[in-house]
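[Automated response] Your request has been received and processed.

Submitted sequence:
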Amino acid sequence: MRSRIVMSMLAGATLLASTLLGAGPAQAAVAKARVPAAKAQVPDAKAPVATAKRQVADVPAEFGTDWHDPLTAAPPVARPAAKSCQVTLAEAEFRDFTPYRGTYEPPTACGDRWSKVVLRLDGTVAGRQYDRLGYLHVGGVEILRTSTPEPSPDGIKWSVEKDVTRYSATFRSAQDVEMLIGNVVDDTYTGVIGVKATLTFYEGRPPAAQTPDRVLTLAADATLTTPRNTERIVAEVYATGSGGGCEEFWYLAVPGSAPYSCQADKGPYREVQIKVDGQLAGIAAPFPNVWTGGWSNPFLWYVVPAPRAFDVKPITYDLTPFAGLLNDGRPHRIDVSVVGVPEGQSGWSAPVNVLVWQDARRAHVTGRLTLDKAGELANSTTYTPGSEERVDTDAGHRLTTAGYVDTSHGRVRTTVDRTLANTSVHRWTDGENMDALDATWTGDESVTVAGRGPARTTATHRTYTMNGATTIGSDDRLRTVLALGDRAAVVETRDGRRAGWSRLDDTYRGDATYTLNVPRDQRHAVGTSSERYRLYGSGGCYDRSLATAQGVLTEDRGGC
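Generated structure:
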């Protein structure tokens, strides 16, 4: 519906402006003293989470002027029992599109090797404000992309935690810091966003396989020059559709022949591609992010945000098959593009970090790309007119790359295979007074490394789901019912035998109704929401459920 685009427009404009100016799980705070919540615990490798439950009986008949601080069911970052040091990265108030700029100095009391580095962002906002998008850069490396909750008149607090140990190489030296949550403050939108970002360092040494030797960013001309002894390369792309237009809601786009407010010639299929010197090197489905004004209904998100809303996870691409090509000491062009975006239309931001692991015993690692084979991109979009308009989409793609590097410990071959699929049914009525989507995105990825011991394969199956509808009744009551799913299954094998596994299931459900075209105090809004986050496998388990009604936390249950 057209009002959906308007309601989250500024969130997109924020990220577009941030792009022009500058370029694991998040846990929001459980903060309101009047409605305490159980503190989530991350399991030890072998121990289950202790069961905890909190319930609140006094649920108002409708939303008032205050509600529980935002929180998510996702686990906080597990912290080792080791000496720690904390450094403040940024402390600022965002009123416009002026970035915060500062400097970072490494901690002096915790050495220069750390078993864990944890980023924490604490935020406050009060009054009236849209959802806003932002980033945090250290030395040009994007370590966080985030969005903000919409506030109550009385004000809210929230927090985000993220494991950023993989950026340790950047943190070992003094760096420039840049942060922006673009904002508009005026007589109507009064919310000033205050934030404090800190890093906590824990002494010790992390597993070498998890911590790269260098973290690189692309040059101004989108080129990359890797160290000549690179033996493994992983690119991160923080891809988000935004820009104040239809690409914030790309999953609802329809062909130009259909009467709908968001159109794209090839429909809603989007695919984030990365190329090396023009060769296709990686494909992935973007995550269907929903910000806290999304689906025309902020009452869905006041307490529990959609999965990943506060901690936008990057897409990762294993580019190791291209290491032999990239290790020639010359700059190579790295291009990121989004398939399906109408030509000439903006709306996507996709900054890139490149993580590299180096061979400490060899100055130059040689190798060769042996396979780069892409299947034909399938994208079928069918429009069926009627009293209930309908667009059916069935799309997908496959890419296999392979290559080797000759290292000081022998020849290592890497094969990366990725298969994507997207199916959706989009239905709407005249005027978009009913607008519904049932969509599923899947991605199968396997990375096999052969050499220096038994062959090792990591196979990952990802599934994202979105099933919901927004309707406007004759009484101008807008109702949104929505379910979102973020799921992943990972199996690691060595020499054909399973060595580890994990399963993630993060499910959100919401149902909220309010009156349109009236002052805020006359909306008579009601709404329920819930989230269950389950993560279990060979490393332990975590299970937490949240439920809310009219902004009150009614359940906080944890346990395995």
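Summary generated for your ticket: Residues 9-22 form the longest helix (14 residues). The chain has a mean pLDDT of 90.
If you did not submit this request, please reply to this message.
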